[in-house]
C-alpha cells in the first residue's frame, strides 16, 4: 500500500480564508461568532452563529463559474483552489483520470431548495425556477471542483452527517492506498441555513452566545459554516514531482453506535472503536499519540461521553485534548475537515489549538484539556475525532512524514480491546 501525503490546504471559515489567516486566529483563540446576517432570525430564540463574512465567490472563480453554483459549492471550490495552489500541482498534474474529488456535506445546497420551494408557492416565474434548479444538488459539490481542474477520476459526495469531512479524507486516502488514484482533492463544505439552524434551536441544542466545550456549565453548540479541503497524494507521485509534504495520513477508524439518532451510546461504543482503529491502522500504540482534536460540541452528553472514551482508549494517560468549536462553532459536515486542516498545522508547528471559553472544570469530563490558550508540545502523531448524529463515528490520524511504520505492516496490528 502507498503512503498518503498531504500537500495542500484550503480554508473558508468564520476565522478567515486560507490556511495562514485561519491558523493565526485559531492559535490566538479568536472567536468567529457574530449575529446572523444571512437570514431572518426574528422568530428564533437564538441568533448567533459562526457565519462566514466577506466571502465573494468572484474572488476565487470566474463570473461564469459563480453563476452556476450555490454558496456551499462556492465555498468548496474556493477552498480547493487554495489547496491546489499550495500543493504546487501544475494543471497537467492535477487533471486527468488519476485525480479524484471527494467532498462531504450534511445538507449541501438546501438553501437553494428552500428558494425553489418559496418560488413554487408564490408561483414564481419559470425563468427563476430554471435558473435555480440546476444549483440545488449536493452531488454537484465535487463536480464543480472536478470541472475546474479537469479531474476525470471518481467524484463522490459523502453526506455522512457531521463526520462527513473525516469520511471524505479517509475515503480519499484509501483510494490512493488501493492504487485507484494518485491525487485526491477531498474535504467538506457546509452552509449556514435557516432550516438547519432552526432545527437545532428547536432541539434545544444551541447555546445563547458562546460554546464552552467540556465546561461544567456548557449550554450547547453554536452552529457554524465553511469549507476545509486537503490535497492528498501518493508518496510516489509527491516524490516524483518534488512536492512539499505537510503531513502523512495515518490510519482511519469508521464505526457506528447503532444506538440513537441524536444521542451517542452511553458507553461510547462506536467512538471507542473508531479511535482504536485509527491508532491501530496507523501501526502505532495509544502511547504514541501526542494530541487529540476532540469532537467537543459543547453539549452535555457528547462531551461527557467523549471524555469517557478518551480516558478508556488511552488507559488513563493524560494526552492533551482540545476542541475548536468554541471558536468556529459546529460547522456540521465541514467541522472535521476544518479541524483536519488544523491537525496538519499542529503536526507542522507543534502548537495545540486552545479550547476557549473554558471556566469551570467538570468532574465528568476528566481530560487533559488545552484550556483557553494554545500550548506547545510534541506533535508527531495527532488524532482528529468526529462523532456525528446517527452514530457516524470517524477518526483520522495525521503524522509527520516518515514517522509512521511501513503501510504494509499496519493492518497486521491487533485491535485488541476494541468493542
Keywords:
2 domains, 16 strands, 34% helix, globular, twelve-stranded mixed beta sheet, Peroxisomal Thiolase, Chain A, domain 1, 14 helices, disordered C terminus, two-stranded antiparallel ribbon, 419 residues, alpha/beta
3D architecture notes:
A hairpin with a 5-residue loop joins strand 15 (381-387) and strand 16. The protein has 419 residues and is of the alpha/beta class. The protein contains 14 helices and 16 strands. The strands form 3 sheets. Strands 1, 2, 5, 6, 7, 8, 9, 10, 11, 13, 15 and 16 form a 12-stranded mixed β-sheet that branches.
**Biggest sheet character:** 12 strands, mixed
**What structural class do you assign from the helix and strand content?**
alpha/beta
Per DSSP, the total helix count is 14
Percentage of residues in helical conformation: 25-40%
Order of helices and strands: EEHEEHHHEHHHEHEHEHEHEHEHHEEEEE
Radius of gyration, CA atoms, in whole angstroms:
20 Å
Distance between the termini: 27 Å
Shape: globular
CATH C-level class of the largest domain: Alpha Beta
Strand content: 15-25%
Number of strands: 16
Q: CATH H-level name of the largest domain... which superfamily?
A: Thiolase/Chalcone synthase
Number of domains: 2
Structure summary:
The protein is an alpha/beta fold and 419 residues long.
Amino acid at each position: 500500500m502507498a503512503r498518503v501525503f498531504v500537500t495542500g490546504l484550503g480554508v473558508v471559515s468564520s476565522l478567515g480564508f486560507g490556511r495562514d489567516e485561519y491558523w493565526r486566529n485559531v492559535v490566538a483563540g479568536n472567536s468567529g461568532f457574530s449575529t446572523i446576517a444571512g437570514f431572518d432570525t426574528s422568530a428564533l430564540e437564538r441568533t448567533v452563529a459562526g457565519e462566514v463574512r466577506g466571502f465573494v465567490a468572484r474572488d476565487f472563480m470566474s463570473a461564469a463559474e459563480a453563476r452556476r453554483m450555490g454558496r456551499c459549492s462556492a465555498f468548496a471550490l474556493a477552498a480547493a483552489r487554495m489547496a491546489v495552489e499550495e500543493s504546487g500541482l501544475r494543471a497537467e498534474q492535477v487533471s486527468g483520470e488519476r485525480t479524484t474529488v471527494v467532498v462531504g456535506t450534511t445538507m449541501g445546497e438546501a438553501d437553494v431548495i428552500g428558494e425553489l420551494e418559496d418560488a413554487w408557492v408564490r408561483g414564481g416565474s419559470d425563468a427563476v425556477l430554471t435558473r435555480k434548479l440546476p444549483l440545488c444538488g449536493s452531488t454537484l459539490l465535487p463536480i464543480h471542483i472536478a470541472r475546474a481542474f479537469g479531474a476525470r477520476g471518481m467524484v463522490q459526495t459523502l453526506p455522512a452527517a457531521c463526520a462527513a469531512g473525516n469520511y471524505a479524507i479517509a475515503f480519499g486516502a484509501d483510494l490512493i492506498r488501493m492504487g485507484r488514484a494518485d491525487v485526491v482533492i477531498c474535504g467538506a463544505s457546509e452552509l449556514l441555513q435557516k432550516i438547519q439552524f432552526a432545527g437545532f434551536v428547536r432541539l434545544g441544542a444551541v447555546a445563547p452566545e458562546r460554546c464552552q466545550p467540556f465546561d461544567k456549565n456548557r449550554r450547547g453548540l453554536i452552529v457554524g459554516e465553511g469549507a476545509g479541503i486537503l490535497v492528498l497524494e501518493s508518496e510516489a507521485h509527491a516524490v516524483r514531482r518534488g512536492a512539499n509534504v505537510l503531513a502523512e495520513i495515518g490510519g482511519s477508524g469508521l464505526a457506528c453506535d447503532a444506538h440513537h439518532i441524536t444521542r451517542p451510546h452511553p458507553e461510547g461504543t462506536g467512538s471507542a472503536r473508531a479511535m482504536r482503529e485509527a491508532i491501530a491502522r496507523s501501526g502505532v500504540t495509544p502511547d504514541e499519540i501526542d494530541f487529540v482534536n476532540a469532537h467537543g460540541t459543547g453539549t452535555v452528553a457528547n462531551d461527557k461521553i467523549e471524555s469517557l472514551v478518551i480516558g478508556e482508549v488511552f488507559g488513563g494517560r493524560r494526552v492533551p485534548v482540545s476542541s475548536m468549536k468554541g471558536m468556529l462553532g459546529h460547522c456540521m459536515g465541514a467541522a472535521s475537515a476544518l479541524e483536519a486542516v488544523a491537525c496538519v498545522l499542529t503536526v507542522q508547528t507543534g502548537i495545540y489549538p486552545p479550547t476557549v471559553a473554558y471556566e469551570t472544570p467538570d468532574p465528568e469530563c476528566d481530560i487533559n484539556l488545552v484550556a483557553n490558550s494554545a500550548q506547545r508540545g510534541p506533535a508527531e502523531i495527532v488524532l482528529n475525532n468526529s462523532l456525528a448524529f446517527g452514530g457516524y463515528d470517524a477518526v483520522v490520524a495525521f503524522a509527520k512524514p516518515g514517522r509512521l511504520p511501513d503501510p504494509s505492516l499496519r493492518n497486521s496490528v491487533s485491535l485488541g480491546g476494541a468493542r
